[in-house]
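subagent[fold] <- orchestrator: predict structure for attached chain, return tokens only, no commentary.
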Amino acid sequence: MHSDVPVTDHGGTDNGVGTILLLHGLMGRGRTWSRQIPWLRDYGRVVTVDAAFHRGADTVGRPSPDELATGRFVADVAETITALDRGPVVLIGHSMGGLHAWCTAAEYPELVSALVVEDMAPDFRGQTTGPWQPWFATWPDRFADRAEAEAMFGPVAGRYFYEAFDDGRLHGSIAVWGAIAEEWGTRDFWPQWESVAVPSLLIEAEHTVTPAGQMADMADRNPHARYLRVPGAGHLVHDDAPDTYRGAVEAFLAARPGG
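subagent[fold] -> orchestrator:
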């Protein structure tokens, strides 16, 4: 277990669904949830974390393969929930964070009361980050400002990444982030998903990064899940289609006990 997970408590109602723990995607950071935190506080106490190897430009380190495995991140999530000592939590995860959310619910069912999984699927076998490496090599060591990030990534993703960076510097290593994603191309996570026994909301972007049909199949394979595809949205649904995302998540949380 890892006791150094940085946790930020954003407050919120104590009369809602309990604690809501937000899990960011690969290359993201807890603070990239800033636009969702205010309205989520109406439904529970909101907490964010920075996943390992996403914690600052000067804290990259030289991780071993075991440190980059999904199981390590799941252990971090479980330790965070236990340390909060507020009972089972609602896990809301984007991309990588969605994978960690449902794997936590599978391995530690007593710690999770509900899930929201955004644009993530169980089986990326055969896919690698190799085709992306030439593009990664074009990234500057530091982005001068948000405008430069938006020029490279587009307005939605550019804002998202710049918020995660440290004054324009990457908050981790592209090589390490790529190595994390490489594991997803070698195994599938269907058994973990199929064992989830809590209410779950699956949100898929029209312009998804997931393999075709998998998120709808996730709903078919798990009776506790409901599925929403968001027309026109890209991978960052919560920022690309914020009203649709908010409406879906609010309806889901309102249906939970205390919501």
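orchestrator: received. Logging for downstream: The first helix runs from residue 37 to 40. The first strand starts at residue 7 and ends at 12.
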